[in-house]
Amino acid sequence: MTLAEVLVSTLLLGISSSAALGVWSGSAQALQRSGQQRQGAAQLELMRLASQRWIADHAARLDLVSAGPEGCHLDAGAVAAVTDQALPLAQGVTRRWFEDQTHLGLWQELTLLDDEGAVLIRRRQLFSPAALGLCRP
Amino acid sequence: MLCAVVNPAMLSMPPRRCLRWPLNQRDKGFVLPVTLCACLVLLLGSASIHTLSLQTHLRHQAELRRHQVADQLRSAGHAFAAQARGAQACLLLWSSRDWGASTAACSGADPERLRGGSLDGQSWRLLSWQPSPGGESGRLQLALADGRRAGFRLHLDPDSAAVLAVSEVQLQGLADREVAS
Looking at the 3D structure of chain B, how many domains does it have? Predict the structure, then answer.
């Protein structure tokens, strides 16, 4: 073993250890972020299902369905108010209800935000009162 | 190297036992290969972890995309049910293949309103509608513009043919680009 050999080996080991630590750190952070997003996605899916079932079960009883330009329709404001009370959102999740432009129903938009308010996941689905059995003659 | 500058005779010791480093000739040059092996292990290990992280991320993205496609197809199913009201409800008693011939039986019904539409910038089209013999339900197949398709079961009121409920979406992969019959 020579001094040059030791120096070169130390240098190589230092460089590779530093690179490996950087990659491990980055991968660990990415895995953590991915896990958080997976949890958030599961929350959004749960909320979507809960909203659909809640509207199907309670919309008629709470008079959320009324006559509109295309027959029966759900009132976005009333639905937003009652679902906010009945189905509280988890932290970092926002929900928005808005009318379809062609009056086919209401869109529910669920968004998962990160700590800085940036959108991580967005889910959007149309809820038609007719598809929920709320427009029977 | 040190032995080159120290005279062994001055120390009254054999040359091999003086300040020579390493002690055995066979050990000469073992550090560099060992270090290279260690570097290789470190880099391969980090590459594996990085690949695992990337695979997890891609799997998560694919799952999210599948959820979003399912949302679009669910929305299309709800849009179909919304269009199948009023005069068009009569058409739900017939297979979509017979809508041309059954238009006379369903006065005022416009089959084109059930054959497709546009939602949130994404168009959808009907692949098939097949009611059950008793008229209590029917099998609906829809496709998006990108070819992704799904099936639903619609529960109907046998008297009025009004939709009572739409089942959970069943994703069916990509459809061919043929126009719905």
Answer: 1
